[in-house]
Amino acid sequence: MNCRHVQNNLSAYLDQELTIEEMADIRTHLYDCSACREEEAELRSLKALLTGMKSKTPNADFEERLVNSTIQKGMAEARAWPRRAGIFLVVAVCSMLGTMQLLQSMKSRQDEITAKTERSHEIASAIHRDQVFTASLDPYNSGSIVLPTDGSDH
Amino acid sequence: MIMKSTRTWASSAVLALCLPSSVFANNSKESPYDLVMRSMRRSFSVNVVAVISNRDSMDGSWGLVQVIRDKTGHIRKSILAPAKHRGIESVDDGERSLTYIPQEKQLLDQDSAFSLPNDVQLRTELAKKNYVFKIESKPKVADKLTFCISAEPKAKEMDVRRYYIDPVTAYPLRLETVSADGDVSVIYTTKSVSYPKKIAANTFEIETKGPFRRMTYSRPTSVDSVGEVKIKLGFTPLIPEGLPFGFKVQEMQINQSPEWKSLVIRMTDGLVRATAYQFRSAGAPAVKTLDPSTVQDVRGIRIMLITDLNKVVTDRLMAAFLSSADDIHPIVMGLRSQPSNLDQRLELNAVSGTLAILDKSPTKARFCRTLSVVDRTSVKNRSF
Description:
The complex is a heterodimer of chains A (154) and B (384). By secondary structure, chain A is mainly alpha-helical. Helices cover 76% and strands 0% of the residues of chain A. The model of chain A has no long low-confidence stretch (mean pLDDT 80). Chain B is of the alpha+beta class and 384 residues long. In chain B, the strands form 6 sheets. Chain B has a 12-stranded mixed beta sheet.
């Protein structure tokens, strides 16, 4: 038997929870090993201290109060949930509506810009076409030709 | 896919114009003025295959275009450069003009400008009145001998124009403008030219690749009176009583397309053309591709002036249109038509009602006089 095994079983040894053979082996080791003997002494003192402490006995209604308290807390949480959920729902709906409105407004603005840009291109294109139309009469403008209308090319 | 134009073309009027060309072609006594006028006719006595470099009237960018035209007025144009526009082709048979834009898979089908009334007589008269023509030199352009004829304007604000013309065929090979400062701008020049005896008939057909969208446009229709414009377009147009530098209104036309109802006023001094477009300014978007200095809003009408004239002349032409608006005080009109190349400019502060002469930089007032400003288009104190 080595020190490690002895120290692991010291508490059970002091509480006489081991077999007779194990108790005998540990006792034999403690005669020969001062380190384990010192450990055994410390543990025995600690156990003596713990044994001497008064234990606190709960009041008779402790259990009932504990149960009631737990039930009431659960009920309170159950009552609070719909209110919290309602607030959450209102916030979520408002947020969703706000986002939709923002998206709608952005889309309208985008549509407006797109329409204006398209109209601008249409006018530029119409003017360009008209200029080429009249220029084609003039041999000094014989290179005039209608170009793509993407707005950046002419 | 081959698209053949089946309509008849080359009206008798156009053919008739070819005859004097051939008659005068070898006339050594032809005056510089006559040669310039002959070079501006709608058809020539020879077939022409040329590669020309010219400037786009809208943004000033340069392009290289092959032009093939036969004696009867058929024209084919093919863009060679810039690369992004290569493949764009146009054919004109005198009645319809087709332009194929492969980049956009579009075929533009519109009236030919040759269907318009011939304006040669008006232009000839005006050119004679407004310019003095003389032969300056006889240089070669695209390996052809040319007569360089200068057209000196009687109005000093106008640029001198130099026409380089093949004296035999009267085909124009180059056009330059020379400003008062002596700056030369090339408007159009020929890189190569030949006069083949025959041109294959299928030259004037357009070959399209794959599916395309046909866009049909009608040319604007002529109108004779302001009242007619008001009825058809819903606004009273601004028509100047007179135009500066010998310009005349050639024709008023209206464009009734739903996307852009507008009035088109075509003007010329004989050699140069200018176009004023008028339409309702309410809700009209800015057209970025146009020089802002050619755009003015007055009395709810937007005026766009498109021309290759210099800024001073363009501004004066615009001022003539603005002056036709009754409620515009001459001071305001003057402010709007100030030449941009001066060191100082007049500025009207619409809030404080102050008229100031400002140095261009820094903008510090040197002289002020208070006016009663009603709005941006009128000034109450007319005794100023």
